[in-house]
Design brief:
single chain, alpha+beta, binds zinc ion, 3-stranded antiparallel sheet, 11 helices
Length: 326
Amino acid sequence: MKKILVFALLIFVIMLFIPTLSLNIIEKNNVKKSEPKLNEETYPITVYDVNKKENFSIEMEEYLKGVIAAEMPAEFEIEALKAQAVTARTYLLHHLKKYESGHPDHPQAAICTGIHCQVWHSQETLKSIHPNDWFEKYWDKIEESVNSTKGEVLVYDDKIIEPLFHSTSGGKTENSEDVFQSAVPYLRSVDSPYELEAPKLHGSVNISIDDFITKLNNAYGKLNLTANNLKDKIILNDISEGGKVKTVKIDSIVVSGRDIRTLFNLNSTNFKFVQSGNEIEILTTGYGHGIGMSQWGANGMAENGSNYIEILKHYYTGIEIKDISE
Ligand SMILES: [Zn+2]
């Protein structure tokens, strides 16, 4: 009888332990499966290589170095590079979150190496497209821009923003709704006064009047345009706060400035037509869509004594800089 009691007690004790044991196993498995923390240097991300048409895995901070090097001249001021580093990290995290199960344009991954997302180059590519001493001269600086801003991202209302940027605004950036569909509170038109060194601040495209009219006719159907009536028939009728052409009236139709930019391969939608002799000269100001941070403007601000935080707060209205672990 005693033996039976002892045996029953033993069974009872074992049964008490079984759930604890299995819980332990589950917890251990969970620990194993859990993602590394975002602020860890080893955080691996998956990127879609647009040239090789395949995914690769890379540590986040290493990836960022390849983006800074591809997206901004390494000759730029360190504070401008740091601003780009925070922007690149924010852009990446925004994409990882928004396109968790793949970007609609590349379902293989949330982010790609092309201009479609933000450009990334491998160290091999960077060495092959730059002079021999480029890597030795600038890589430390690129690493510094990433390391010294480690984990820092841009937030608005405590949410990670989509930090659009462009090369040269032409003096003033754009309100998001003047270029794309929606009004984004942190993408407001602001002055960008320090762009005088930007190589594409001013651009021009020359085209004969005949070719100009033919291109428009091919794109929009037969329009009543002649060399003599162009001045009256083409009207830039809606200009944005940043100085870009939103719509153009051509004869009886209205087309967007973006369509004209694409049609004539212009640097920006800040353009005007100058007719002289048999030619039309299309003059442009700035380069890119004009929303968010101007890279040449950022470098100009850095040259004039601004640090990366001041640069970012200037171009992204109402944002804060936070550590991703927060
Ligand atoms: Zn992409």
